[in-house]
Amino acid sequence: MQIFSFNRRLVSNLMLYWCLFFCLYIISLSVSAQALLEVKIEGASDQQQQNILAHLGPVPEASAQLNSYIAKARDKTQKALVALGYNNANINTKVQRELTPLRLLIQIEPGPATHIRQMNVEVPGDASQDKDFQAFIQNMQTHKGQVLNHGRYETWKSELQNYARSHGYLSGKWQQHELKVNTETQQADVYLVYDSGIRHRLGEVNFQGSDMTPELLSRLSPLTSGEYYQSSHLSALESALRRSGYFADVLVTPDLNAIEDYHVPVNVALTDAPSHSFKVGLGYVTDTGPRAQINWRTPRVNRYGHSQETTLRYSTVNPYASFLYQIPGDDPLTHSYQLKLGLEQNDFGDLSSIQKHAAVVSQSTAHKWIWAAQLRWLDEKWSLDGLDFQAGYLLPGLTLSRTRRQGPIRDPEEGFLQNYQIEATDKLLGSDGRLLRVSAFWKWLHRFGNHRLVLKGQAGINITGIDTVEDLAPSLRFFAGGDQSIRGFDYNSLGPTAEVQTSEGLQTKVVGGKMLAVGSAEYQYYLTPDWRMAIFTDAGNAFNRNNFNPVQSVGAGVHWLSPVGAVRLELAYGVSEDDPPWRVHISMGAEL
User: Which of 24, 394, 552, 582 is 20 to 30 A from 330 via CA?
Assistant: First the structure.
């Protein structure tokens, strides 16, 4: 026991000594880490000071290197000033050793700056006939008369050579690149003469690694063999191939070792995208309640670029299944032919509907507007308190839409969405009635500071030749109410009504209308970059001719800007009703 006690005290003392030693060591490191020398510059501008400090480099940490650092300070300062065009600066260095740490004082009289007297830039060869290249040179020549900056002179050389090579002048070479400085007159002359040689053109594009047909790959390429070579063309080709969705990886390179007759071949290495992809999602919105969705996509059904997408979604109000088969058009990136099939269940007011629909679509996105011409077949069954109905329609139609957006997708700062649709049919086409249906949707938003304004509008009209909608399928009628319509009211719960005899007696049922007019105004305020509050009012209704009875709601909410879009929690109630209804709305997704 005595030995054990002695050893214990010994260990404790050793640990105490070790701790004291460690603390002293840390203190010594802290002292040695202090700067040994302070540099102070007087008489120089901010730009001059930054360049001088960059030339001097960091102050040495070892005292043995201080003398060398101080001895070279004047020469390095002079080089820093010359680089900025001050060739006759008066520089004085002084070491103030009485201070701790030592101070190196650099006193400067920059003197007059050197200005560029002549800016001679020439590009003999094919570039002399290139208007774009000449415009580039003229812009460079505007530096005449400015203060000389040696760094910018080197930049001009690089820019001129890079511009030539990126625009097809691959055999260009320097004939002269010289900077002459007269330190007595404080003037400089710049001479840049670059012989561009013959401008090269695009050669054959060689695709490798994919089983897609050469004809489809050629249609995907925005390049034309024989046009002038530009590196931006290669970037455009890579971008087009990636946007097609057919490839997991794309590598575009010019084959500079195989140039023939000034034509540059282009090699494209492709890796095909996976044959199938699956996505599973869960969500909740108040209109349709909880929902689960699975999406199966095949980006390449065959080597001709056909693709398919199948979606199954279940919710208590609006379950559906859809199938899309797409065939690339003349320009696979902007034009396609589509076959659509769908099976859907939905509630419209007090009507329960099951829809089967098929459509053949030609869609173009070549311009700012998206055009879609379609021929749609709709077979719809619906019921109202045990009474069953059915109708079928062949509907030629046209859809036109455009979205303009500035800022991130999850939270645009400015934008305007427009969507217009027109469909028409007649009994002569085999439909169960005559119909002309026109609808439109608009959404505009703008942010200013922490404030944001959002305006929405919906309008629609059905022309059937009769005043009632009893024989018209519910999905072709108009209803209002819900997250995307008039908040504060249930999904599709607003519209014209009809008296229906039921087992419980005569009851009023919402059956929808031939027309629609809905508007919304919303003000949002950003509490933080990811959170904002909102107040809003919605108004309007679905209606029949000469029977417009608008309703209005007001509400407030809070929005969280998640990575996938705004998650909106809102409370609204109908101020136009005698017994105002209220409703909590939860929705999410991109706004435009």
Answer: 394
